Amino acid sequence: MSLKLSDISSYLSFAKKLSNTSEEILKKTPSNRIKINFKSDKSPVTKIDMAIERKLRSMINKRFPNHGIFGEEYKNKTNNSPFLWVIDPIDGTKNFINGNNNFGTLISLCIDYTPVIGIINCPEIKKTWIGIRDNGAYCNGKKINKSSNNLPLSQLYFSTSGMTAFKSNSKNKKYNTLIKKTKYASFGGDCVQYGLLAEKRIPLVVESFLKPYDYIPLINIVEESGGIISDWKGNPLNFKSNGDVVASISKKAHQQFIKI
Predict the structure, then answer these.
(1) Quick check: pTM over 0.85?
(2) Is 186 in a helix, a strand, or coil?
(3) Which of 126, 204, 208, 212 is the most exposed place for a label (fewest CB within 10 A)?
(4) Are strands 204-207 and 228-230 parallel, antiparallel or unpaired?
(5) Is residue 110 classed as helix, strand or coil in its secondary structure?
(6) Residues 6+ apart with CB under 8 A from 75
(7) Same domain, residue pair 87 and 62
(8) For each of the chain's 260 residues, which pLDDT tens digit applies?
């Protein structure tokens, strides 16, 4: 049964409010005053990441006190509610620190752990992508044409944030094979890659070592624009996925990647 927009319109309006609030915080941040700390996994975090997530959690708790929240920087709560908000305050923190514009806030609402709303808000490039389950994908309010193609890997290029570039592990074998089978690779797009894939600007995105807050908000945007997103074995993504993610606008290329 398809999800009716009227059933989630109030949640969608609130999700947009969360997105706008995050953007306001980011725009108030002087670029030369970013203090960097490092987590146990050596990934960077700034006070801005923390401030955004704190504010969004506060807004959710005030409006929907019984809803769960799953975020990157603070302890998560489920409240045994069918409603779960997913937050990545700054996806692409390294780009944010470096002054590279390829970063954004990710927000999703899940009902019974199924994402029904997904938002990528990238203020520096002035783009916000929204995906609504069964109701389309949008960029800056304009509906994205739902389409795909069946081109092989040999006719495509791929994008990746380069998470494995300096890691010694078996995943690099797949990347090395992929780069031989495609025209070229681009690096460092983080969440922006998936918005551009929805717009058919990027045909294939491959990443690994992601967390649920990195990929859950992307699902509706990719699928509602006609793309495919899954783990590297072709399984649908969920909160227990291992963090290997592939998204494509080509069914054929997607299947070819899975077989590598």
Answers:
(1) yes
(2) strand
(3) 126
(4) unpaired
(5) strand
(6) none
(7) yes
(8) 688 899 899 999 999 999 999 999 998 876 666 777 888 777 778 889 999 999 999 999 999 999 999 998 998 888 789 999 999 999 988 888 888 889 999 999 999 999 999 999 999 999 999 999 999 999 999 999 999 999 999 999 999 987 665 566 788 888 989 999 999 999 988 999 999 999 999 999 999 999 999 999 999 999 999 999 999 999 999 999 999 999 999 999 999 999 99
188 in the Ramachandran plot: left (φ > 0), alpha (ψ -120 to 50) or beta? Answer: left
The answer on 58 and 185 residing in a single domain is no
Give the H/E segment covering residue 96. Answer: helix 93-98
Task: Mark which of 143, 172, 191 sits at the end of a domain.
Answer: 143
Tell me, yes or no, whether 28 and 136 share the same domain. yes
Instruction: Please identify, among 143, 178, 213, the residue that sits at the C-terminal boundary of a domain.
Output: 143
Same domain (yes/no): 131, 228: no
The reply to whether 148 falls in a domain is no
How many angstroms separate the CA atoms of 137 and 134, rounded? 9
CB 97 within 8 A of CB 34: yes
Extract the tokens encoding 128: 């916000």
- For the record, the structure tokens of 256 come out as 């070819």
CA distance 182 to 172: 15
Q: What residues does 250 pair with on adjacent strands?
A: 149
**What residue type is 160 in one-letter code?**
T
Domain with residue 50: its CATH number is: 3.30.540.10
